[in-house]
Design goal:
Length: 168
């Protein structure tokens, strides 16, 4: 069994190899709530890479609105909740079927989230960014998009559809 120090070192190395480093982004702040699952070792991992830990006030989910919004987006667009299953079993949801994924274990959840995060950053349009994805190159106003130049790609077994330009 690994010691807390070994786990912290392993986690720190994993964070450095993560997608943040691949894009040249360094985490400077970690905003988290005061849940007891965040131990001192967890904080030490983030401090080791130079991040400043900011704890939100007690019982105030609005203080971490960005994280709450992202979790809500994942739940709405990707994951089935217990309430969704209950409603669907009783004919609820206005006749719509469940077009979400039912997660079977932790490994499945991690795989689905990895794919969804890639879609969220590279393929999903964001209203606040002018309907562009965060990782999109800067838009060229002179480039006109026609429907003939669009190609649809299915993500997560068709749950999500991404569109990309192809050569004319």
């Amino acid at each position: 069994m690994k010691s807390t120090t070994q786990l912290a070192a392993s986690a720190s190395a994993h964070i450095r190899r993560s997608s943040l480093d691949g894009r040249g982004i360094v985490a400077r702040h970690l905003i988290r709530d005061r849940d007891t699952k965040f131990s001192r070792a967890f904080d030490d991992v983030w401090r080791a890479i130079g991040a400043h830990i900011i704890r939100t006030p007690v019982r105030s989910p609005v203080a971490n609105a960005f994280a709450e919004r992202w979790v809500g987006t994942v739940r709405r667009e990707c994951l089935v909740t217990q309430g969704d299953r209950w409603l669907a079993a009783r004919g609820g949801r206005g006749g719509r079927g469940l077009d979400h994924l039912l997660i079977v274990n932790r490994r499945h959840l991690e795989r689905v989230l990895k794919i969804f995060v890639g879609h969220y950053n590279r393929g999903r349009p964001h209203r606040g960014l002018g309907f562009r994805a965060p990782d999109d190159p800067p838009a060229d106003a002179a480039t006109a998009v026609t429907l003939k130049n669009l190609q649809r790609r299915e993500v997560l077994g068709g749950l999500i559809h991404e569109y990309e330009l192809v050569a004319a």
